[in-house]
Design brief:
This protein is mainly α and 128 residues long. The chain has 5 helices and no strands. The N and C termini lie far apart (64 Å).
């Protein structure tokens, strides 16, 4: 039972990390210190998607599930938990590339807007 609970906790942390990778730039708009956490996380998320690597949290969860008597699963976290919701079953290289581009694109827009706003604020401050 404990292994299952630990595996579920790893899934929740993993899912939270994925959300942070995709949408963490929005947090940076409110708290500029978050950039130091978000940029490395977003780079890691994009690298995982572009290279097809498996995030270390996935084998950890699978090991906990096996120790708890459950069957593990093939593939990675995104393939097992997120793709069935977002896409038809089966992770392809194209799907991974699209997910990676989405991470980069969303964050490029968010950070572009943030940098543009900061430039305008500096420009207005220098005019005073």
């Amino acid at each position: 039972m404990w292994y299952r609970l630990l595996a579920d906790a790893v899934v929740m942390v993993h899912f939270g990390f994925v959300l942070f990778v995709v949408f963490g730039g929005l947090l940076v708009n409110r708290h500029s210190w978050a950039v130091y956490l978000h940029v490395p996380a977003a780079v890691w998320g994009a690298v995982i998607e572009f290279t097809g690597w498996i995030c270390p949290l996935t084998p950890w969860e699978q090991t906990l599930r096996r120790l708890g008597g459950e069957a593990g699963y093939a593939g990675g976290f995104i393939e097992h938990y997120l793709l069935p919701v977002l896409y038809p079953p089966g992770l392809t290289t194209t799907a991974q590339t699209v997910l990676g581009l989405a991470v980069v694109g969303i964050n490029a827009v968010v950070y572009g807007r943030l940098l543009n706003r900061r430039r305008r604020q500096r420009s207005m401050a220098s005019r005073r």
